[in-house]
């Protein structure tokens, strides 16, 4: 990854920060885009933080242009920024629906829109769209979230087709991952410990995932070892959703 540049959205925590740390350790230039401040403590020319609301076109355009100006190239875009909101279609307010769509879907379109031209200039690039296992299965009361994450699979295919053969696009679909977003969501429950145990139990591997595990998959998909992979969605979900509802192991 030496002399290569990766842009990561939602990079100040969770999966985004795990990706940023891994790519940095492997020698890449890392551009972090987030509305939250960078608290990593890393002070290096290869570590470049920009405060950016990735749902706003002008901010995305300036952040990506500044990244290219600083490092001279953009090799990888990891569209990771996302939020979770709860509600079904009848009780989700319109502004809440729009917020989820803007952060979880529009932002990935905007970042690709402004990063891909630089990839075209250099003749290669990889776009990773972080979707969710909920693009395949869904829990109750996540109408906006699961809709946005499912739409990302279509965006992934479209980018893969439109910019082949030199630019690849792949979706990564995590299950339950131990991130600040998960912890914040669980904290809304009257019994957070019970909800966490439910999260653990619903995965056949009997645990939730780590951000670093998702980062390793993303790193592989960006590498030359994955050069024959494009337009696909990869679930990294501990087997979530593959069992028949209500089935349990014999005691």
Write the layout of secondary structure elements.
Elements: E1 5-9, H1 14-25, E2 29-34, E3 47-51, H2 57-71, E4 76-79, H3 94-122, E5 125-130, H4 143-162, E6 167-174, H5 180-186, H6 192-201, H7 211-222, E7 233-236
Parallel strand pairs: 1-2, 1-4, 2-3, 4-5, 5-6, 6-7
Helix pairs in contact: 1-7, 2-3, 3-4
Enzyme class: oxidoreductase
EC number: 1.1.1.47
Protein name: Glucose 1-dehydrogenase
Explain this structure to me?
The chain is an alpha/beta fold and 251 residues long. It has one domain (5-177, 210-236): NAD(P)-binding Rossmann-like Domain (Rossmann fold). Helices cover 42% and strands 15% of the residues. It is built from seven helices and seven strands, in the order βαββαβαβαβαααβ. It has helices spanning 14-25, 57-71, 94-122, 143-162, 180-186, 192-201, 211-222, and strands spanning 5-9, 29-34, 47-51, 76-79, 125-130, 167-174, 233-236. The protein has a seven-stranded parallel beta sheet with strand order 3-2-1-4-5-6-7, with helices on both faces. β4 (76-79), α3 and β5 form a beta-alpha-beta unit. α3 packs parallel to α4 (143-162). The relative contact order is 0.14.
